[in-house]
Design a protein that fits this description.
Strand content: 15-25%
Number of strands: 14
Radius of gyration: 37 Å
Number of helices: 6
CATH architecture of the largest domain: Beta Barrel
Shape: flat
Number of domains: 3
Structural class: alpha+beta
CATH class of the largest domain: Mainly Beta
Largest sheet: 6 strands, antiparallel, barrel
Amino acid sequence: MGKTVAFLLILAFLATGCAGVSEAKPSFVEASGTIEATEVKVASEIGGRVLEVAVKEGDEVNAGAILIRLDDSEARQKVAEAEAALKEAKANLEKAEKGATPEELRLAEASLGQALARRDAAKLAWDDALASLKALQELEMDIEKARAELVAAEGEIQKAEVQLRLAQIMRDRYQGDGSAQGKTLYTSYSHQAEAAEWALEAAKAKKEAAEQALKDLEGKKSNPYAYLLKAYQAEGEYRQAEAYLLIAQAELDKVKSGARTEEIELARAALEQAEAALEMARYFLAKHTIYAPISGFVSECSVKVGESIQPGKPLVTIASLEEVELTLYIPLSKLGFVHLGQEVEVRVDAYPGEVFKGKIVYISPEAEFIPRSVQTKEERVTQVFALRVKLPNPEHKLKPGMYVDAIILKGGKP
């Protein structure tokens, strides 16, 4: 998720001595640029309504710090239900191990019936959710079909309008004709005009239906995460219903014949199902709180309290400050003075007298022209080589966008 984003690349390079005038080689190379940082865009894995935004742009955060909280009331209810199911499963296992009385038969049968109905309903909901998810793959064909139906409806409207206009013209032509033939034609064209009006209204209704169908299909396509989330939730509810059913079946079997080894194992399996359902519910609840994956400062925060968010949409961008980068450009004449691992001293106006040290980690294998945004008129025909420098920044003094002066010290290769 992280990638290096250059806020600005600026260059000014200066070498001691002038080419063609002196053969004296400088002991260092000077260049300038701006600090860059690795950015991580943080998104939510689920959709929901934002309950709290705990950070703002410019804040420094530690890895694991809370960034955003979503409304988790429904998820908490699911956890409470799963905890209750687990508690019941534990009690049933203990009871199965101790044995049960015949007086509980009626209640056990009723509980089994309810659990079976709940499981079947949950399975149906899960199947529907999976079918909706699968239907997303067929949306493109449905959308193309809906578009074709819309075009056809528009054609029918045009055809009906032409027929209506022709019928009206002919009707009006014979409107004042008192002859028998004129009256007959007037009546005939009046009926044709009326029929054309009905056809036009029907075509318009068909167009509206086609437009709505197309809108609905495109709406489904625009938010596939909602169908995926619905499928996950439906599966969780089905697993929980299965756990209830196993519990009820174990209880009934135990009441009928007393606790046997296989019944105890069944109750133990139901307990494991309930534990898995609780784990899934807690996992989903945890996704309602979004944490910082790295330490750094918040360079962008694009979400507000009360806003409804979609899964996968970047909400907060964090720039890592533990180690920053600097891109410099040097001319071909200075390329022989630099090598990988070479030390670079960096100074910044914000901290006069302080030197930050880094090392060259990359040298471009190809020459390029100076970026247009930083070149002068004289430099537009100058080809240079890009260097990338990494600088440790444990105190977070260096910030992205800071303009710095760098000195590349001449020395032997390591």
